[in-house]
Design a protein that fits this description.
By secondary structure, the chain is an alpha+beta fold. It is built from 16 helices and eleven strands. It folds into two domains: about 5-100 and about 185-350, 3-Layer(aba) Sandwich (Beta-lactamase); about 360-465, no CATH class.
């Protein structure tokens, strides 16, 4: 950019000052507005449990919980849940604490500070700690073979498993979202601090903030089981992804604890690092609007989602107004209810009317009906395959072939399903087993449609050959 950042900052400050003097102060939303909206989202979505918190500066202005956990106990603002990739902002904080102590060089090569981090790709020697945190290291989950090391028992084992991988791009050249970045960062915290990652987080982050229901180990903090929607019926299931003690997605916490976290991220409450470090974490990289565990949005606010097989979460802060929002759900489906609820709460903090809560159950019903229709059409097609073959006598072979292509399209989509999802997920390795969790209804419907198409095609081919 040709415009000086100093000029941009000066203009922004001047504009804000003018607006502050010209416009009347906006009335703060009432707590009842937040409570009513969260209750509406819970009832409309049908998720097993939902908790949320809204902060303003140092204060929690709303926190609440609805529903039940997998043991049947009520979900409250103190119920621990997994927050998945929302954990990344916590890991970034751990690193910045050590940066301020002079124990980690943010712009120094990772390999110099973590000698066990070695890769056959020589470019890995140039990856800096900052590039891990803003996801510009060049690590790509396909080229590093993430699926082969995702179940590593420890961060040390995980880091060692990267040795034979390759980078997807030069360090600093491109943005590529990868959990590996934050697991390496967590291992760096362990080595530099001399403590297990969970122990460091507990001593340096959770305890100072008073986050009593938080941890990075489900033996220390029990989040119970999450759930999946089976066409609108919620089933408690064991979380398929190994996340304990991981910097990429291991944090377990509650709504009230997240309130304390949001306050410190907005520069209030108990401060873990200075203002400059917060600004560093919240600033985007040169190649993507992504900070250190935060997605930097066009309006200057920051957010990050977290999605596992059975849990969803979302956090959002507005450094200008001091508002913060976090939502967690112990049910994962095709619709991310935590994201929707957080966006609605955000709108309320901005003085807008609460949006209407949607119902993901309608999507499940639609997919269920599609599966039933596919079964019916498939059965009909098999039964009538003889009549169909008789009508094809004398018809062009090309026309017949095109009809087979049409019939087998659902089958091709079903076979390619994991690969398509991987492509749409920025190259992340999606396995068949993972598609049977939050996307269960879609997966089953695609398989039913694909099987029905294959059965009809096979029956018609047999009749044609005869």
């Amino acid at each position: 950019m040709n415009t000086s950042p100093i000029r941009i900052a000066g203009a922004a400050v001047a504009t804000a000052a003018l607006l502050a003097t010209a416009a009347p102060a906006q009335a703060a939303p009432e707590t009842d507005e937040f409570a009513s909206y969260v209750e509406n989202v819970y009832e409309s979505s049908g998720v097993p449990g939902l908790s949320a918190v809204v902060t303003k500066g140092d204060e929690i202005v709303y926190s609440g919980g609805h529903g039940r956990d997998s043991d049947g106990d009520p979900v409250t603002p103190d119920t621990p849940m997994r927050i998945a990739s929302v954990s990344k902002s916590f890991t970034a904080m751990a690193v910045m604490i050590l940066v301020e102590e002079g124990k980690i060089d943010l712009d120094g090569p990772v390999a110099d500070q973590l000698p066990e981090f070695t890769m056959d790709d020589p470019r890995a020697d140039d990856i800096t700690v900052r590039q891990l945190l803003d996801q510009t290291s060049g690590l790509n989950e396909i080229t590093i073979g993430m699926s082969d090391i995702a179940d590593a028992a420890t961060l040390e084992e995980f880091t060692a498993g990267l040795k034979h991988g390759e980078l997807g791009s030069d360090p600093g050249a491109e943005w590529d979202y990868s959990d590996a970045n934050y697991d390496i960062a967590a291992r760096l915290v362990e080595v530099v601090s001399g403590q297990r990652f969970h122990d460091f987080m507990t001593a340096e982050v959770f305890q100072p903030l008073g986050m009593e229901n938080s941890g990075v180990d489900d033996e220390a903090v029990d989040p119970k089981l999450g759930h999946n929607s089976w066409y609108g019926l919620w089933k408690a299931r064991t979380e398929p992804y190994v996340t304990d003690d991981r910097g990429s997605g291991g944090v377990i916490t509650s709504a009230n604890d997240m309130g304390r976290w949001l306050a410190t991220q907005n520069g209030g409450g108990t401060r873990l690092v200075g203002p400059e470090s917060l600004e560093t974490m919240h600033a985007p990289s040169d190649v993507e609007e992504y900070g250190m565990g935060w997605v930097v949005q066009d309006d200057g606010t920051l957010g990050h989602s977290g999605n596992l097989g059975t849990f969803n979460a979302y956090e959002w802060i507005d450094p200008e107004t001091g508002y913060g929002v976090a939502v967690m759900s112990n049910g994962a489906s095709l619709a991310d209810v935590s994201w929707e609820a957080a966006q609605g709460l955000r709108q309320i903090t901005e003085g807008e009317d609460a949006p209407d809560a949607s119902s993901p159950f309608l999507m499940d019903i639609g997919l269920g009906l599609a599966a039933i229709a596919s079964l019916a059409l498939g059965a009909t097609g098999v039964v009538r395959s003889g009549r169909w073959a008789a009508k094809r006598g004398g018809k062009s072979k090309w026309v017949t072939a095109l009809r087979f292509v049409r019939i087998l399209t659902p089958t091709a989509l079903a076979v390619a399903y994991p690969a398509i999802v991987s492509l749409l997920s920025n190259g992340r390795d999606i396995t068949w087993s993972s598609t049977f969790y939050h996307a269960f209804p879609l997966t089953v419907t695609l398989l039913v449609a694909g099987t029905a198409g294959a059965a009809v095609a096979a029956a018609r081919l047999v009749r044609l050959v005869r």
